[in-house]
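#structure-requests
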Amino acid sequence: MTTTPERPTRQRTTLERRRTGGDVAVGVLLVIAGVVLLGNVVFATVASVLLIGWTALISGLVLVVGSLLRIRSGGSWAVALGGVVLAVLGLFILRNTAIGALTLTLLAGCVFLSTGLVRIVGGVVVPEARVVLVVSGAISVVLGLWILLDLTTATLTLLGTLLAIQTLLEGITLVAVGRVRPAPAGAAPPAGTTGAPG
């Protein structure tokens, strides 16, 4: 009589949202930073443009180097070309911050306007969600038109305002509920899950 060896059981990682003292401290700092940025949206706009520029530049370089290192094992020239374009875009934004801010603001206005129009049309087609889609679509259209019709003011304020609001919301979220992390060892599994040998 032969016995089959037992396969080791795989432990399931349970995720939960917990708040620690570090989360509260970082959250408070983010809230303060968000309030400061809201008080100086022009500075926040410049900071957001520089952040986007550096992110594009570094991401592009990483894509190019990674593709070239793997080119013999099936690396893609298309990925390398995309990395070059991304790196050039990052350099362009960093060298011409004002034009970069104008371009990103124009893009944001077009996105708001087109998204709003799509939602309004969707509200006409889908009667059960008509009110929500039409209202949210109308707000997006108004935002898009405001940006596109007053591009100079929007360029100085829009990106900074969005960055400040995002920073503020991140800080409030950290202070209120913490962040998602693995549950501590030995914690009870969520209701309805049973550990069965794999």
